[in-house]
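INTERNAL AUDIT FORM
Audit reference: QA-55
Scope: verify that the stored structure record matches its stored sequence.
Auditor: D.O.
Record contents follow.
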Amino acid sequence: MKKPLIPVLLAVLAAACVLGCGHAPAAETPVPAAAVEPAETPVPVLSFPGGSACRADEIRLALPDLVHRDVPETAELLKQMAELEYVDLGTDGAWTESDRAELNAETAAAERPAEAARDLTWADIQLLQAAAPQADFDYRFVFYGRYLSTLSEEMDLSHSVMSDEGAAVRELLPLMKYCKRLDMDSCGVSSEAMAKIRDDYPQMDVIWRIWFACDQFTMRTDSERLWCAAFYPYMWDEYTQELKYLTHLKYLDLGHNLQLHDWSFLRYMPDLEVLILTSSSWESLDMLENCTKLEYLEIIPYAHLDLDLHPLAGLTNLEHLNICAMGKTEGWEVLLNMKKLKRLWIGEETGYYLPEGAEEKLREALPDTEIMFRGGGAATGSWRINPDGTVPERYALLREQFDYDHWTSVAPYPYNDPKYNPPW
């Protein structure tokens, strides 16, 4: 018997459709390789000497019991902690959080007190810092009787007895990366050694005490004002060179010191704003070249001098300048560029030697400047007292800046300095 034709044709057509459309038997669609998440790499766990352990991605770490013999191994482990931010190294054994010993002469003289039990050295801590330079290492210790930390921003070691020219301090300083101020007033360290520390750590304000004028006077190197006029029995060249360490001075009056001829210390005072050398002696003005912040300058010689004014060329911030009583001067043209001048006192003696037409050129170049060209008076007269008897505004301010009305209390005698006496 013959099979029906239509069902057979339908079956053939269905099979052809499947083959023509490229359909294959159903199967699982493969997942692209990029879409497969790799297995997470486990963070290493570091085992430190003494039994403590931590993950390598920790940002804080405590090693309060670390001892000298374990420092090299610890340093190698720290190199694996790239995210480390802070390490607590504990204390030196002399540090007490609650019962701190009172600072006195005995404790201040102790470099590393006998009660300190930790055997960590400064070199140990420096090795650890080098292993993880991105991290802060906090080590609390007692040094010359002071409670400090390697994170301290200030070190006040004033009046500590030091017989090593600051060698112990030098060993410590490389660890103190946040320290901005080091006070070593009256520690017995020479100015030469202190200046070397200051030069090696320019980011740090290094302070000490100088003596000058046959040791009659004393000042801290962070002082901003010095009034020492008319002390000529003591102000000789060989007794004033320590003044070069007063690099913070802003106001300086050394007038009427007739025996002082070497003014080279002024080269080290770039912050000077006011300088008075009235009735004094010098051979040139080269010492003023670095004093570019000067706003007020009196350079009136004791006797007529032939001077070159070219060293004043960079002093373009001057507002008040008195060059009276000089002799023949060269380089007067530098005055033409001092556009901030409010007062320019040239005077009879200095003006006599200026070339013809100099006055007209000065008045043309400095139309807003009060110029005293031919009058007298030098440092007196209208420079300090107006014709009507009133005090000029600038001189009134000058008296405040130097505290002239209380000169006996501002002269640089030791007993006038409250920081000269030790704190015990």
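Auditor finding: record pair retrieved intact. Confidence is low (pLDDT under 50) at residues 1-25.
Action required: none
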